[in-house]
Each structure stands twice: as structure tokens, then as C-alpha cells.
Amino acid sequence: MKNIVRLLGLVIILSPNSATAQETPGFEVFGGYSYLRLNPNINNAAYDNAATIGNHGYHISLLGNLNRHFGIAAEFVRHTGSRTVRASDFGGPVPPDTLAKFRVKSAALLFGPRFTARSERTTLFGQVLLGGARTHLIVNAPSFSTDGTRPGFAIALGGGLDLNLNRHLAFRVGQVEYIHVRYVSGFNGSQNDFQYSTGLVLRLGGR
User: Fold this and answer.
1) Is the Cα dihedral 47, 81, 105, 109 positive or negative?
2) Which residues contact 195 (CB under 8 A, 6 or more apart)?
3) Can you list the domains of the chain with their CATH numbers?
4) Which of the listed residues 34, 57, 164, 172 has the most CB atoms within 10 Å of its CB?
């Protein structure tokens, strides 16, 4: 880990045009790895306990800057996760020691304002995003299976820190968000999730 930090510091120092990173880009495209800690509350203890796991996936976003400190962001995230559970917790005529595979697939599409503080070396931002989310819960046991999708309205509160490598490229050290999802379409319950993302930012155009 120390070697990675040292290497990143060296890249930042040696990157061309790093001192001219003050120009505001017209657009910023981010792509990278994302971790989601899913915490559902669907009024079913077996599903709630099984789904409270770490999920891994990807995070893509597009930011259009209206000026140096304000822009509109659009973000898409997708995560998957799985674990082994007791099949009897989810019903079905199975012996108590029978195991099943529990899988989670989740996705969200969010939009909203982003507020940014820029300097030569770093870019710090905060945002409030609204949109839709979907959580897909699957149980596969030897003698039965269940499969259900829960759509919902989502709100995300968070922010992040970028290290400017040069005029057009930055490394996102971290983007951390709290995401609340309220289920719709007749489903009861909600989710309170934690999300962390990291990756590269490509900056296009200028203002």
C-alpha cells in the first residue's frame, strides 16, 4: 500500500501540465470500481440478513460544468454480490442443513447538482442526486428458487476528492455516498446503503 501511494505521488509530480489544471473543463467523465454495502429493510428477516453484504461493481458518471464551481451530474452504478445461506430460512421442503446460493444484483441511475472546489493539485466536490434504483434478490436451492425485483426512488448524498494528474486526467481517491432507496410499486420497505468508488476522471473541453 505504501508503494502505491509513493508511486501515485511521483506520477502527480511528474505529470505534464499539472500546474495548469486550474482551467475549468466543460465535461468530466468518471469510470471505476465501486463497492456497495447494502442494508435492506424489506420486512423479511431472512432476506434482510442475507442481503446485508458487500457488493462489487462499477461506477460511471458524466458531469457538465456550468461554471468553475457548479455543474450537473448523471451517474450510473451497478453492483453484484452473493453468499451461501440456509435454504430452510427461505421456505421450501428441504432438510434444515440444506444450503442455497443467495445473490443480489442492484443498479441505480441518478441526476443532480454538484458543487466543486478546485485547486492546482486537487478537486473536492459534494453533491445531491435523485433518481431510480432497482434491487434484484435471488435464492437458488436444490428443490426451489425465488426471484424478485424491487424498484425504488433513490436519493444520494456525498462527495469525493480527485488528484489532478494533468490538464485532462485526474485520479479519484474516493467518492463516498449515503444512498437511501424507498421501494415503490406496492413493495414495502427501504434501503440505507453505503457506497465507495474510485477510478479515473477524463476532463474534456474548457471554460
Assistant:
1) positive
2) 34, 35, 36, 37, 59, 77, 156, 158, 175, 176, 177, 178, 179
3) 24-204 (2.40.160.20)
4) 164
d(CA 130, CA 52) in angstroms, rounded, equals: 23
In terms of Cβ atoms closer than 10 Å to its own Cβ (0-12, 13-18, 19+), residue 2 is exposed
Q: How far is CA 89 from CA 80, 97, 98, 102, 143, in A?
A: 21, 10, 10, 11, 14
CA dihedral of residues 15, 16, 21, 24 (deg, nearest 10): -120
Pairwise CA distance, residues 34 & 179, whole Å: 13
Of 30, 24, 16, nearest to 202 by C-alpha is 30
Each residue of 94-111: pLDDT tens digit?
A: 777 788 888 889 999 999
pLDDT digits (tens, 9 = 90+) for 140-160: 877 777 777 888 999 999 999
